[in-house]
Each structure stands twice: as structure tokens, then as C-alpha cells.
Amino acid sequence: MHATLLGVLGLALLGALHAQDNVPVQTDFQQDKLTGKWYSIGLASNSNWFKEKKNLMKMCTTVISITADGNLEVTSTYPKGDQCEKRNSLYTKTEQPGRFSYTSPRWGSKHDIRVVETNYEEYALVATQISKNTGSSTMVLLYSRTKELSPERLERFTQFSREQGLTDEEILILPQTGESSQWER
């Protein structure tokens, strides 16, 4: 029984790793064109924190800039109650353009981040495989340069999220916040 359980867990882990290997990265990725302000339009995840917080989530802004050593500084500002919070992350570039790694100082989780597709001026679809000692999860983000995106782009986000094994309950188009919110600055 114990050997069977270990075998099943091993196959599940191998399947998750294999699935991430099949996640494409934007062809001819141009990092400098990804910089600037983005809105988080869609978020999909099979993580426990997403399931717990899904009904509280709202659209946020993310500003991407390139550091002196060529990594990405990613600053997200999001509403939390009647205040706003900022979260800074440093995405370290890998040998593959469009693919980055990040380790959460707070949780110790390791993130394999891939810019799946983008036209730089309208949208960016980003997939992340998150690994920590309690297991792994998948997250897909849809960024837009504006607060609204075409139904075709929204459908592509939903379709891609499903291809990553996420269910419709794990896919969310984020509600907009008010125009006068201080977090948009």
C-alpha cells in the first residue's frame, strides 16, 4: 500500500513537472517592451490561498522595470480594505528569454515564471509554477495595458488556464476598482 501511494505521488509530481515543461515561452521575447504599467485583469490558480481569498480579490496595478543587472523588478499595488498595499518582487532572468525565477522571502516558495504570450502593447499572459515543501500549484495571470480587454483575449486566458489543468472555479476575471482609488498611482 505504501509503495503504491509513493508511486502515485511520484507520477503526479512527474506529471506536474512535465506539464510545466510544455508551457511555451513567447517567441523572440523582448524584455524591454514588457516594462511599464499593467493591470491584472485575470487570475487563475489551484492554490489554497487563492481559494480562500478569491471572493475578496480585485484588479491591481503592476509596474515592471528592468534592474541594472537585467532582472525584472515587479511592483504590484492592490486594494486591501480601504487601504492599498505594495508588494515588490525581483524576478531573476534565466538562460531562456521570457522565463524567470523568484523565491518568496516570506513563504520560501520557488516560482518558475514564463511569459507565455504578449504583444507588449495590449496584453501579456504569464504562467507560474509554484513549488514549496507542502506541494506545488499553478497560477496564470492576464495583464492588460488598460482596465478592459477584448472578449477574445479573455477567452484565450480562460482556455490557456484550462490547458494548465485549472477548473472554471479556479479562474477569475478580476473586478475593477473605483477610478479614484489611490492605489492606481
UniProtKB/TrEMBL annotation:
Its main location: cytoplasm. Keywords: Cytoplasm, Disulfide bond, Endoplasmic reticulum, Fatty acid biosynthesis, Fatty acid metabolism, Glycoprotein, Golgi apparatus, Isomerase, Lipid biosynthesis, Lipid metabolism, Mast cell degranulation, Membrane, Nucleus, Prostaglandin biosynthesis, Prostaglandin metabolism, Secreted, Signal, Transport. It catalyses: prostaglandin H2 = prostaglandin D2. GO terms for cellular component: extracellular space; Golgi apparatus; nuclear membrane; perinuclear region of cytoplasm; rough endoplasmic reticulum. It is an enzyme of class 5 (isomerase). The keyword Transmembrane does not apply. It is found in: Cytoplasm, Perinuclear region; Golgi apparatus; Nucleus membrane; Rough endoplasmic reticulum. GO terms for biological process: mast cell degranulation; prostaglandin biosynthetic process. PROSITE patterns: LIPOCALIN. Pfam families: Lipocalin. This is Prostaglandin-H2 D-isomerase. The keyword rRNA-binding does not apply.
